[in-house]
Every structure is written in C-alpha cells, then in structure tokens.
Amino acid sequence: MIGWALTLLVPSAAWALAHAVASPTAARPPFAVCGAAGFLAPAALLRWCGRPFPEQLLGWVVSVVAWAGAFVIRDGQVFVAFGLVGAVWGLALGLKSLRVTAPLSPREGKPKPQFTPTSERRREPEKAGFSVELRCPTCGAALAVPVYHRMARCEFCASVHVVSGGSDTLVVVIPDAVKDEASLKAAVAKHLGHLHYLKLYDQRVRPLIPESGFEADETGQGLAMPAQRRTPALVNAVEAEVARAAEAFAARIAPRLALRAWRRFLSPYWHRFGTLYQAAFGRDDQDLKRMEFAVATIEGSVAASGAPLPAMGKLSYLRALRPLQGAPEAAIPALPVEVGAEEIDRRVQQLGRRSVELPVKAIAIHATLVPEVVALVYRPWHLADVELDGERFELLVDGGAAAVEGEAPEFDFASRPLDDLQGEAPALVPSRCPECGADLPFAPDAEAHLCRNCYRLVTMRGSRWRTLPYLHEEPEEGHWLVPFWRFPLRLRTATGELIVDLPHLTDGIDGTFDQIGDRPQVQQDLLVPAFRTRVSKAGVRLYRILWPLVQGRAREFARERLSPARPPKRVVDMTLSAAEARVFAGVYLALAFSHRDLARAQVKNVRERFLLGALEGEPAPVYLSLSQEVIGPFAGLFGRARVAALADLEGRSPGHV
Ligand SMILES: [Zn+2]
Ligand SMILES: [Zn+2]
C-alpha cells in the first residue's frame, strides 16, 4: 500500500511543486538538469517549461510507471527503462532550450505572433493621403472627403457638392478616440494583455515551430525531425489558446487598473501633398542622349514639434481628419509648432535628384514639387500613469488609434491652449453652375468645370465662383474635347535670355543654330495639357503622341462659348491648374528635343537653357478637338496618380516620415 502511495505521490508532488513555483519568465534548466529532471519527474519539468497540459499528463503517466517499478513491483529494470524515457524527453526539451536561447541572428520568414504591436499595425495601410470630415449641406451627415478632392457626393442623400474655401494651410486634427477614463483604461488593459500574449507566445508557441533551416545546417537532420513532427494544427491550437488566455488576462486585470494621473495633449505635424515634376537629360540604353520627364504624386510629413514622439506614418488608416476649428479636440492643449515644413521640401528635392522613374541614365535632373495641400495635422496623445496590483506603468497612448504606443518618454510635454485658431476650414457647397443653375458633372479631381448646359467654364477660387473665358476648336463629329493651357512661349533661360521660338530652344541647345541658321525668333505658343494622368509612363506616352498633333500645326480657335446644339462626344476634365501647368510646361518641353538636337548638347547648356529655364506669360484655357482614335485608348488614364508616401519612395520605413 505504501508502495502505491509513494508511486502516486512522488510524481504528483513534484508536478504540483513545479506548478506552484514556475513563473512565466523562469529560465529553462541547463541541458544536464533537464535529463535528470526528466528521469525523476518529467511532469514537473514539462510544467516548468510551460508545455501544454496533455503533454504534462503524459509525462506524469510515464513517471508513475517508472516509480511503480521502484516502489510496487520492485523491478529496477522497469524503473530505469521508464526513467530513461523521461530522461530522453527531458534532454529533448533541453536541446530545444539550447536552441531557443542561442544567440540567433534574425531570420526571414520566422513565424510571428498573430497580434502585431501597435506601431506595426499602423504601418499596414498601402494607400496614402487622408480625408477631411466635412458636413453634407443637404442632410448634415459627416462625409470623409479625400483632401485633394474638389467635389464630393454624399453617400447618404446622394447630393453632389463642391469643396469651397479653406485657407492655404489646412489645420486639421486626428479625432481622439480616447474620450474618457474607461476608454483609456481599455487601451491600457489591451496593451498589458498584448504583453502577456507575447510572453505566452514565446513560452508555448515558439518552441513548437520547426526551425528546420537552422537545424539542418547546424546540427543535422536528426535534430530537425522531432521539431518538424509538430503539426501546424498543434501550433495553431496552442496559439489560439495563448490568444484566449491573453484576452482573459486583459479582461481580468481591467477592473483592477487604477488611473493615478492622466494628461492629454496635441502634437503638431506638417503634412504635404503634391506633385513632383522631374526633367532629365541623360543617355538611354543605346547610349543616345535624350531628354525625358516623369510626374509623381507624393506626400510626406514631419513632426512640427521637437518633442520625442513617434513619426506620423501614413494617415490613411483613419477614416477622416477633422478641421480643428469647431472640433471637440480644439479644447485640448497643444505643443507649440517649433519646426517649419521645409524639411519635407528638402527631402523631396533630394528625392527629385534621383532618376527612379526616368528611362535614362541621367546626366542632369531638375525637379520641382508643386504642393497642393499643406496641412498642419494635430495628433492627440495621452500620458497615463496607471497602477496594477501595486505595479506602476507610465504609458504614452496614441489617441487616434486608442492604443498604447509604449512607455511615456521622460520629457516635459509643455502644452498650452490653442487660443488663436488659424486657418479657415473648407466647406461643401451645392454643385450647381453659378451662371445657369444646372448641375455640374461629377468630377472630384476637376480644377474647373465645363457646364454641360450653358458651356461656361467655372471654377471655385477660395469660396467664390469664377467664370473663365476659354478658346475652343469646333468639336468634329465623334471627337473629344481635351483641355490645354495655351502659354505664349516665353522661356527665360538661367542666363536671362528670352526664347520665344521653339526651334531656337531645340536647335540652340548644343550652342549652335546648325539647323535653323540665323532665322530670327518668331513668337510661338505652347499648348500644355491641362489634365493629369494616372500613370507617369503611360501619360508620357500619350503626351508624346499628342505633341506633333498639338504643337506641330496651326489651329483655329473660336472665342464664343461652345454651343449646346452641337455637344462634343466627350469632354476630358480639366484637372491641372494654370499655376501647376506652368511647372509642368517646364518638363513637358522635353518632348520638343530630337536626337539630332541633343547629339552634341553639353550639360551646362542643357541646364542653363532648359532645365533651369522658367516659363513667363499668362496662359489661357483652350479646348482641342481630338479624334476618338487618338484619345479613346487612353480614356482610363485621365485622373490622379496613386499617391506615394515620400518615405516609401526614399526606400525607408514609413515610420520615419
Ligand atoms: Zn447628404
Ligand atoms: Zn451653366
């Protein structure tokens, strides 16, 4: 009887003892100790190492048989045989611990916990840009309008509106999702639950995951096998159990969290959104000199305060930002703006000197960013001093995501009330022609709208409508009307010379007029596309096709409005402003140069006469009638390019922008 009692007592007591003293952070025993402990009390060892319960139970059964050999049937061979089973088990665990604690270099493809830390979660969205929350004037609903859109359709009442007003610098705030003590505590509990999850994951899930590449190389196939026998199903099951345990942990501690102190503040970030125009002189893959250009839409942000806070990252993970004026967040004190937005320009300029998108090996590049949106974005933060069962946590909580960012930096976040709120918020106004009252066609990117009822060209300047006079060709049957800006060609070179005649620019680029001789300059016009294209390379292809059609022949323009009696088949929206078209013209002129012009061109001359030249003179909008065959295949190309984050283009992590 005593034999039986001892047989059951020894492994059970050891198991219970291990359960009582094991802590999640306990280190694994050394390799030899694993063997000895496996021999004597495998269940205890398994518990100590945080193995799943069924495994521990099996260890206990093995151990009971071994001790029964010693105490009940008194057969040393049984004791040793089953003890050795436990010992081998223990040694296998010890090996695993050797492997886990060995200093490994991080390897690609290493399995990651399901939960991702806050900072990683925030980097996920691919889309850049952000939306601003504006009220629908018809039904009052809050609409998320992409910041570069000029029109919006209400998703609730289907009314269509034009974005009006708004100051040069848009002042917006990320809505604070941490509104009260309960939501702050919930964020903290979630964070502590996540830390708990990571701990459990390292203990229970990671040891189950085969790390075959390492083992096969370092210790041979034999050792890789036991690890690989663990099925993914087991890994998934344990991981799910760990996630449940972490959730339960977070729920358990939530009521015990005590908030000792809580401070909220806003921190400012500069945000820029615009188009980068690049022109380059270089050699193509056949070593011929060429002039090329590329157009890219980019955005970037930098912190406007010197406080040690995380970078902005991408803003598109939020539904919409609010104009600060009138937002509830305007009452939160803010850190002062200490840094200008020039840092973004500097980095864009740096980026612009690289020829990422250009199909030439560049000898000289000139790049200009036309900012479209300059925004000061305020981001809500919370400093939370929290106590859990006597342990204190000082945490920085991101109000936008309602998630703990990390430990609170040791810094005096001196904030003060935002009393002089600068910047006028944009608003939505009904999308009706100011002249005839007809509904304007829906074109969110449109810079100016051609009313399809009265054929006036109208545009919103600030918060007022303006009617623009325009020229046009008579639309031929089946033709499209395509908008251009007609500039008088007045290119001021870096040396102050004025070029008004295109061949004087192109033939003269190599320093001699060997093609045109001493023919005097004749004032010419330059027709610059007044529409954007979604893809730079396809866009350049279209511009190249259009160049000889548009530039190479004299065209007759009518001054009076188009007649509603002869409507064009289709009208391409005007999506490029006159100011931006002036910059675009500087790179678009690259199309004028032939191989012959450039064959003997030297970089100094190219720089002075072209890359650094500036187009003077006032442009006027004109509509050209172009055939369906030419323009039709490019119908899907009109519109705005996908926005790229500056950080991505720089090849850095978005977290740094
Ligand atoms: Zn509405
Ligand atoms: Zn009208």
Overall description:
The chain is an alpha+beta fold and 657 residues long. Among the domains are: 2-101, no CATH class; 181-258, no CATH class; 446-639, no CATH class. The chain is 32% helix and 24% strand. The chain contains 18 helices and 24 strands. The strands form 6 sheets. Strands 5, 6, 7, 8, 9, 10, 11 and 24 form an 8-stranded mixed beta sheet that branches. Strands 16, 17, 20, 21 and 23 form a 5-stranded mixed beta sheet that branches. A hairpin with a 6-residue loop joins strand 13 and strand 14 (457-461). The radius of gyration is 35 Å and the shape is elongated. Residues 99-112, 114-126, 212-227 and 652-657 have low confidence and may be disordered.
Short description:
The protein is of the alpha+beta class and about 650 residues long. It contains 18 helices and 24 strands.
Which structural category fits the helices and strands?
Answer: alpha+beta
What is the overall pLDDT average? 83
Total strands: the figure is 24
How would you sum up the major sheet?
A: 8 strands, mixed
Shape: elongated
Number of separate helices = 18
- Distance N terminus to C terminus? 74 Å
What is the beta-strand fraction? 15-25%
- Pick out the low-confidence regions: 99-112, 114-126, 212-227, 652-657
In this entry the ligands are:
zinc ion
Radius of gyration: 35 Å
Helical residues, percent? 25-40%
Oligomer category: single chain
